[in-house]
Amino acid sequence: MSEPGKSDSKRPHVQVTEISNKEELTTVLEEAGDKLVVIDFFADWCFPCKLISPFVLDLARTHTDVIFVKVDIDESDEIVERYEISSIPAFVFIKSGRKLDSITGANYDLLTRKVAQHKTQAATEEISIL
User: Fold this and answer.
1) What is the mean pLDDT of each run of 10 residues along the chain (130 residues)?
2) Separation of alpha carbons 21 and 9, rounded Å
3) Rounded CA gap, 71 and 29, in Å?
4) What phi, psi does 21 have (nearest 5°)?
5) What is the 3-state secondary structure (H, E, C) of 1-36?
6) What SS3 class is residue 62?
């Protein structure tokens, strides 16, 4: 009989940080340099957001060279408006201060493919950090 949580003990401890204002996001994006940043837009009342959340954490553990952050749409109007979020869950992919892509929905396979694709891709669509 295996011990509960034993397989997780070899995984690095990774936390997806919640960003609550544009200043915090600006700092994260500046400190990320040329690393991919994935912003997970969610709300506490959103069932699909709750479903995808553990998978986002798993992606963060797997892709330690990618920075994952969460933004609660009910707490961060400026960030939601900046990235034109109209449906959740939504994910925005940013590298070197430039938006590369975005997706909407709790589609783990698509999210996984986009993370793998964009972490090695150069930034192509220029937008300001905020």
Assistant:
1) 44 76 94 95 97 96 95 95 96 95 96 94 51
2) 33
3) 14
4) -155, 165
5) CCCCCCHHHHCCCCCCEEECCHHHHHHHHHHHCCCE
6) helix
Which residues carry out catalysis? 46, 49
Q: Which CATH number fits domain 16-120: 3.40.30.10, 1.10.8.1000, 1.10.10.10, 3.40.50.2300?
A: 3.40.30.10
Q: What is the pLDDT of residue 120?
A: 85
**48 preceded by a cis bond (ω within 30 of 0):** no
Burial 66-92 (b: 16+ CB within 10 A, else e): bbbbbbbbeebeebbebbebeebbbbb
Please tell me the predicted confidence (pLDDT) of residue 12: 55
